[in-house]
């Protein structure tokens, strides 16, 4: 995530997988499917909070993260909206072309890197494209609790707004912004300025929209702003230059030398260290790891400046070490 960032990110280590099967698969468009996962055993699925996501374990040891669309009040299933990525690493292509109703899927316990500030006086949700999925979950949750909210749903055209049917219950709390009807992407500055100062703003969508959101928030002095990225930002600091350093695994007191080739996450996985992982782009939070000592060179898109300074988390899929040694709490 880009600044301004959520100040409440909680990237929790993944604990277990749940056996599920695909109860329903809907094709909403040539590029978007919605799947509903239900338990494959007698055990209910783990509950979740609004804004959470789960990882799916796919063939070839691929793991992909997807936001939960259904309200936490209806956690008997997990509903996920999946965009066919144009330049993905094959996960969405597999799900779009191979997955069928009745198929088994392993889903992680839900994690939440985009939590809702529930006591807020007002919540404004701004979604672009597939970024609607976590915001749909939030909107459903807030509506179920009769909390004040407004959802802005932006898409290139009405035809591209394939989640419109899910939003009908919001009534006047929904504003649709279609590029082809509005003459381009929405101008977020007046849109944000129209809401009272105590509002919490949430934005999820394509990188340019999140960058525009960040800029508008900075101009308006908005601090209660939360974003979730589905892919790396054009304004993220970029990849690390290759440089080596020692990595100490605190639990086993093992010292490894990382030569700077590939990501630190890949190096740890190759070294036999089990670390949950998903996007490999620093945006899903799956690989969040606690640092015991050493100066981290943060390159992720989800930790806030506050977290970088005051928490001990790092995302080893994109981040590294500024010094000669990094000690990890694993
Ligand atoms: S694997 Fe997604 S943040 Fe590291």
Structure commentary:
InterPro entries: 2Fe-2S_ferredoxin-like_sf (IPR036010), 2Fe-2S_ferredoxin-type (IPR001041), 2Fe2S_fd_BS (IPR006058), Beta-grasp_dom_sf (IPR012675), FAD-bd_FR_type (IPR017927), FNR_nucleotide-bd (IPR039261), MRET (IPR050415), OxRdtase_FAD/NAD-bd (IPR001433). Pfam families: Fer2 (PF00111), NAD_binding_1 (PF00175). GO terms for molecular function: 2 iron, 2 sulfur cluster binding; metal ion binding; oxidoreductase activity. By secondary structure, this protein is of the alpha/beta class. The protein folds into three domains: 17-108, Beta Barrel (Elongation Factor Tu (Ef-tu), domain 3); 123-229, Nucleotide-binding domain of ferredoxin-NADP reductase (FNR) module (Rossmann fold, 3-Layer(aba) Sandwich), CATH 3.40.50; 245-328, Ubiquitin-like (UB roll) (Roll). 18% of the residues lie in helices and 29% in strands. The protein has helices at residues 91-97, 132-144, 164-167, 179-182, 188-193, 207-220, 264-270, 305-310; strands at residues 17-27, 32-39, 53-58, 62-67, 78-83, 104-108, 123-128, 149-155, 174-178, 200-205, 225-229, 245-249, 254-258, 289-293, 296-297, 313-314, 320-321, 325-328. The strands form four sheets. The chain has a six-stranded antiparallel sheet with strand order 4-3-6-1-2-5, covered by helices on one side. Strand 12 (245-249) and strand 13 form a beta hairpin. The radius of gyration is 20 Å and the shape is globular. It starts with 16 loop residues before the first strand and ends with a strand. The relative contact order is 0.16. Residues 1-15 and 233-237 have low confidence and may be disordered. Bound molecules: FE2/S2 (inorganic) cluster.
């Amino acid at each position: 995530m880009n600044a301004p960032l959520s100040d409440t990110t909680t990237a929790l280590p993944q604990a277990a997988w749940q056996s599920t099967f695909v109860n329903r698969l809907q094709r909403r468009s040539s590029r978007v499917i919605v799947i509903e996962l239900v338990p494959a055993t007698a055990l209910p699925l783990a509950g979740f909070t609004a804004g959470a996501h789960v990882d799916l374990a796919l063939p070839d040891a691929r793991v992909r993260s997807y936001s939960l669309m259904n309200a936490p009040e209806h956690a008997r299933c997990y509903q996920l909206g999946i965009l066919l990525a144009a330049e993905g690493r094959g996960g969405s292509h597999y799900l779009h072309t191979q997955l069928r109703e009745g198929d088994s899927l392993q889903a992680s316990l839900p994690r939440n890197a985009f939590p809702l500030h529930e006591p807020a006086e007002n919540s404004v949700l701004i979604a672009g494209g597939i970024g609607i999925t976590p915001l749909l979950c939030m909107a459903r949750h807030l509506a179920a609790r009769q909390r004040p909210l407004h959802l802005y749903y932006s898409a290139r055209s009405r035809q591209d707004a394939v989640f419109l049917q899910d939003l009908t219950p919001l009534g006047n709390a929904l504003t649709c912004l279609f590029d082809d009807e509005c003459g381009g992407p929405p101008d977020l500055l007046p849109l944000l300025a129209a809401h009272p100062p105590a509002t919490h703003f949430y934005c999820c969508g394509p990188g340019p929209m999140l960058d525009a959101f960040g800029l508008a928030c900075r101009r308006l002095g908005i601090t209660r702003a939360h974003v979730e990225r589905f892919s790396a930002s054009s304004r993220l600091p970029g990849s690390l230059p290759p440089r080596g350093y020692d990595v100490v695994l605190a639990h086993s007191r093992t010292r490894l030398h990382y030569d700077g080739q590939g990501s630190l996450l890949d190096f740890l996985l190759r070294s036999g260290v089990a670390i949950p992982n998903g996007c490999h782009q620093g945006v899903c939070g799956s690989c969040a790891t606690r640092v015991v000592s050493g100066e981290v060179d943060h390159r992720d898109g989800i930790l806030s400046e506050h977290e970088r300074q005051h928490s001990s988390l790092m995302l080893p899929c994109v981040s590294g070490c500024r010094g000669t040694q990094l000690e990890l709490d694993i």
